[in-house]
TrEMBL record:
One of its GO terms (molecular function) is FAD binding. Residues 50-165 form the FAD/NAD(P)-binding domain. It comes from the Bacteria. Pfam families: Pyr_redox_2. GO terms for biological process: sulfide oxidation, using sulfide:quinone oxidoreductase. This is FAD/NAD(P)-binding domain-containing protein.
Amino acid sequence: MKHELEEQLEELERQGISRRHFLKILTAAGIITAVGTQKVHAFSSDAKGKIVVIGGGAAGISMAARLMHWLDNPDITLIDPSDRQYYQPGFTLIASGVYQPEDVWKKQENCIPDGVKWIKDSVAAVDPVMNQVTTANNEKIPYDFLVLTPGVQTNWEKVEGITHDTLGAGNAHSIYDFEGAQKTWKALQEFSKTGGRGIYTDTYTKHKCGGAPKKICLLTEDYTRQHGTRDNVKLDYFTAAKELYDIPFYTPRLLEIYKERNIPINLNVRVKGVDTAAKQVHFEKVETVGEEKVITPFVEDYDFFHFAPPMSAPDFVREAGLGWTEGKLAAEAWVMVDKATLVHKTYPNIVSLGDVAGIPTSKTSAAVRMQVPIAAKNLISLMEGKEPVEKYNGYAACPIVTDYGHVLLCEFDYDKKPVHSFPFSMLDTSKEQWAAWLLKVYMLKPMYFYGMLNGYA
Ligand SMILES: Cc1cc2nc3c(=O)[nH]c(=O)nc-3n(C[C@H](O)[C@H](O)[C@H](O)COP(=O)(O)OP(=O)(O)OC[C@H]3O[C@@H](n4cnc5c(N)ncnc54)[C@H](O)[C@@H]3O)c2cc1C
């Protein structure tokens, strides 16, 4: 299922025309505006310094691209071990049969901006006092300024009874993985035929796209309805959170949808493990009674199970002393940055954004899109010896797919107030909309690959 525009872009790419030359097409299609691209080019700086970017995902590549536009003398090295650039929001759509696996990735070598030096290796350590990065191959790379964007570390081993390699065993699935999403799609279709009980869960740590587990649950429900098998399946949603969703503008409608679709919601429940042979999930109900935390274990049978792995900052972040050491963000060592400027609180030559950043907002690429120009401008100010003045308002978005054809487009800021960045002002955005489905399925992916990663969107 592809937009005609995307087909055309891919055909040009097959003919060997660089992905980076598609700007005019995107501008013509209104995906990025001419005004927007002029704005990007209206700013420049002759600041100098060696910049090292750790991690070339949504945040790292977009930052490198912006800095290439804005610096007259850029000296940028990007370290990332991956051959592929994944559009991860597409994993949910693979798991529901809307996208094919090959729709969501491109070769990393084609995504790295021209002029950026790529070291294809993993970072093993950072010494923020000596301003030096060490890779897994023991290469030592000095820097003047560091952009810390390695995303999350998925800690699969924290769910007992299953590993990344055994994903799918005992019909236990996770869309938080490219292969996992493909297995989920096969299993979802089979589950719709055989029927039984589906258990859908998230995790207790901050995780990327908090909406994703809810989306795959609602899409399963709609899939069974469309295939006339809804009466054969019982679906239950278990969340580790104390409410299904915590953005007041959108929560009432989401709760209503779960009720209308007969999916009971269980709160404050963590997955401890899964017995894939017995097809049982081991849960812990976590309650606070007075001052005390009371944990009550219980077990539920399932026929289909979806879970999310606990997530944290990569180990090297904690080991380098770059993570929060107190407060809610300390347990997973999310990077200790100022939530407005995205500059590190101890080391002012480090900026961090994207999923690894320790800021109180949702981990989404929509958030990354808004963080990039702010972090890039602030980094340039630091390079110029000035104070960072650009401020991020916490914008994040989560398009919650509620069925095949509708999306509840949740956009909000640090105050959990709704913010609208797409031209849907004539629609009631507190409810699911078809227009938002079109945006999610056809527009956001080209915007990611051709706009954002080129430093324009
Ligand atoms: C199932 C799912 C659904 C999602 N749905 C949505 C959605 O609907 N909307 C939305 O906006 N967002 C969604 N997201 C979230 C979005 O994909 C992330 O927020 C976004 O990719 C974060 O960008 P990032 O650059 O911080 O991390 P990533 O894009 O994950 O990139 C991290 C990069 O760092 C590299 N790296 C990791 N460790 C190291 C190391 N030690 N050394 C060097 N490099 C390293 C990796 O190879 C990778 O290239 C979803 C994610 C998933 C998994």
